Amino acid sequence: MDEKKENKMRYIFCFLVFIASYPLQGNECLDKLVAGNKRFAKGNIVRQELVAAQYPSCAIVACSDSRVAPELIFDQDLGELFVVRLAGNVASKEAIESLDFAVNVLNVDIIVVLGHENCGAVRAVMDHKGDKELGEIAKSIENGVRKSPSLEKAIEANVQAQMRTIGNCPELKTQISEGEVTLVGGVYHMQTGLVTFLENE
Ligand SMILES: [Zn+2]
Predict the structure, then answer these.
(1) pLDDT tens, 135-181?
(2) For the sheet containing 110-116, what is the strand order?
(3) Which residues pair with 187 in a beta bridge?
(4) What is the pLDDT of residue 24?
(5) Cα–Cα distance, 70 to 75 (Å, whole number)
(6) pLDDT for 55-67, tens place per residue?
(7) 139 alpha carbon – ligand 1 mean position (Å)
(8) Which residue, 28, 129, 140, 164, has fewest beta-carbon neighbours within 10 Å?
(9) Ligand 1 being an ion, which residues bring their Cβ within 5 A of it?
(10) At 111, which helix (H) or strand (E)?
(11) Is 188:75 a contact under the CB 8 Å cutoff?
(12) Do the Cβ atoms of 99 and 85 come closer than 8 Å?
């Protein structure tokens, strides 16, 4: 086989491998989810006690980052935490609607805004050079972190900024200012697994 033909065959082979592996990756992920769900359905008994209603004790606003699952970090079972997750742990309008439900319908009396070490959403805002317009999540982060000297400080500043948004929203302002609902900020550290709770401003 001449070199040209060999290269062509190699190209076709690589293309076929790519096509064949692409849907397989998706299926492998789904297979993992199906198997995991079966294990869960068999092993978890708490869920049966929660069929009719939920009584979470705490609401958490966390980042969507796969390493920052609040139920795992705080070692809590099903039904304990009312979790709102968006990249950058932003308190968007929709996040606040969810917190409103948690506080005013489910009677949750503590809200934790949880940032985390090495947050990609905060880093993306800090690295942004102004060459293209920021998305809505980035805009929610930008104001709070503009003057931060480091990523670490920006992550804390973002937690505090999101806390201010929650503390000033009409749906929750009274309960928070009168102390019926406690608003707390924290940062999860991946190296240690520990959450540092921030001083109130
Ligand atoms: Zn993050």
Answers:
(1) 999 999 998 998 899 999 999 999 999 999 999 999 999 999 999 99
(2) 81-85, 58-62, 110-116, 182-188, 195-197
(3) 115, 196
(4) 55
(5) 8
(6) 999 999 999 999 9
(7) 15
(8) 129
(9) 63, 65, 119, 121
(10) strand 110-116
(11) no
(12) no
Q: How many Å from the N-terminal Cα to the C-terminal Cα in the chain?
A: 74
SS3 call for 122: helix
- Which residues of the chain are modeled with pLDDT < 50? 19
Q: pTM to 2 decimals?
A: 0.84
Greatest distance between any 2 Cα atoms in the chain: 82
Q: What is the DSSP letter of 131?
A: S
User: What is the spatial distance between Cα 108 and Cα 179, in angstroms, rounded to a whole number?
Assistant: 13
Place of tokens 């959450």: 195
* Cα separation, 122 vs 137, whole angstroms: 10
Name the token pair of 73: 């970090």
Rg (CA), the chain: 22
- Ligand 1 centroid distance, CA of 123 (Å): 9
Q: CA 177, 183, 186 angle in degrees (round to 5)?
A: 150
67: CA distance to ligand 1 center in Å? Answer: 9
pLDDT at site 43? 83
For the record, the structure tokens of 159 come out as 């937690």
